Amino acid sequence: MAASAPVLLRVLSAAYGAAERAGEIIRRIMSEGDLGIVEKNGALDLQTKADRLVQQSIVGYLARHFPALKVIGEEEVEAGGSPELLEGSLSDEILQQTCPEELSKAQENELIVWLDPLDGTKEYTEGLLDHVTVLIGLAYQGKAVAGVINQPFYNYKAGKGAQLGRTVWGVLGIGGFGFHPAAIPGGKCIVVTTRSHSNKLVNDCVDAMMPDKVVRVGGAGNKVLQLIEGQASAYVFASPGTKKWDTCAPEAILHAFGGQLTDMHGNKLEYHPTVKHQNSAGVLAALNDFDLFLNRVPPNVKAALHP
Ligand SMILES: Nc1ncnc2c1ncn2[C@@H]1O[C@H](COP(=O)(O)O)[C@@H](OP(=O)(O)O)[C@H]1O
Ligand SMILES: [Mg+2]
Ligand SMILES: [Mg+2]
Ligand SMILES: [Mg+2]
């Protein structure tokens, strides 16, 4: 590993390789056909063999290379288990970047990794494969500063010969990479929201945005990808359902690309290691016109969701 690069870039570069290998595990488990589904807190909160194995493997890999790094992952799995030896290749593209001065000071023991080994689990179990992502977010001084998103089944509808899967990454002050930026067609207001965790408050808030179209898809990572690729104008989720591992990597990439992700009151999300995991005041994000969407959040939503 290029020992001369700042540790933040070295960790992100390793995370890039690990996320690619994680994507291979997720594809393999799907092709084997036995997902090993268990319910965590009811039928809407599932865990599969892929969630468990990817978390164990990434945690083990990062611990071997960065022993002082603190990793907080979604799944409660044994540290030992039978993780795969994830020796992913490092991203030279990341290692060669010039790190913003503020971030280049970060020490290994000051970085927090927020890990969602498989985002969009419900959709994974239902075969909506391109909703699934692996999210590895890096926080420094309580802020989401860098992230990697692997989308294991990207392109799976493109037919034989198409390259399956992709990895998107970003760092504050450097930018966002690995995706196809695009504008929203015809200046339309397209709201993207949950597919499997709706309720009245979630739907009221979506309606208050006065959308031309509502897109319901799984995964926090997938929804932020839709914002940066011009498929949606705003990600609106008036629910305490997401956790820090859902938002850290997507937020860092969106912010690096010039967008904004906050709670329903417009408060920044915090990522220090002792923070409450739940994003209890919901999630609102947009690449452009963020304030317009924030101003449309209705009073009953604000009253119901407390930070
Ligand atoms: N009511 C709820 N209970 C548990 N998890 C929830 C939830 N609402 C959202 N989430 C989690 O937030 C992420 C995005 O949700 P959604 O796809 O509905 O937009 C998913 O992450 P995971 O798939 O990693 O668990 C999902 O499980
Ligand atoms: Mg989950
Ligand atoms: Mg998730
Ligand atoms: Mg998950």
Automatic annotation (TrEMBL):
Q: What is its EC number?
A: 3.1.3.57, 3.1.3.7
> Which Gene Ontology MF annotations are present?
3'(2'),5'-bisphosphate nucleotidase activity; inositol-1,4-bisphosphate 1-phosphatase activity; metal ion binding
Question: Which parts pass through the membrane?
Answer: none
Q: Which GO terms describe its biological process?
A: phosphatidylinositol phosphate biosynthetic process
The reaction(s) annotated as catalysed by this protein in its Swiss-Prot or TrEMBL entry are: adenosine 2',5'-bisphosphate + H2O = AMP + phosphate; 1D-myo-inositol 1,4-bisphosphate + H2O = 1D-myo-inositol 4-phosphate + phosphate; 1D-myo-inositol 1,3,4-trisphosphate + H2O = 1D-myo-inositol 3,4-bisphosphate + phosphate; 3'-phosphoadenylyl sulfate + H2O = adenosine 5'-phosphosulfate + phosphate
Q: Identify the residues that bind Mg(2+).
A: 74, 116, 118-119, 246
Top-rank taxon, per record? Eukaryota
User: Which UniProt keywords are given for this protein, alphabetically ordered?
Assistant: Hydrolase, Lithium, Magnesium, Metal-binding
- Cofactor(s) the protein needs: Mg(2+)
Pfam family example for this protein?
A: Inositol_P
Similarity comment text for this entry: Belongs to the inositol monophosphatase superfamily.
For this entry, the protein name equals 3'(2'),5'-bisphosphate nucleotidase 1
The scientific name of the source species is Eptatretus burgeri (Inshore hagfish)
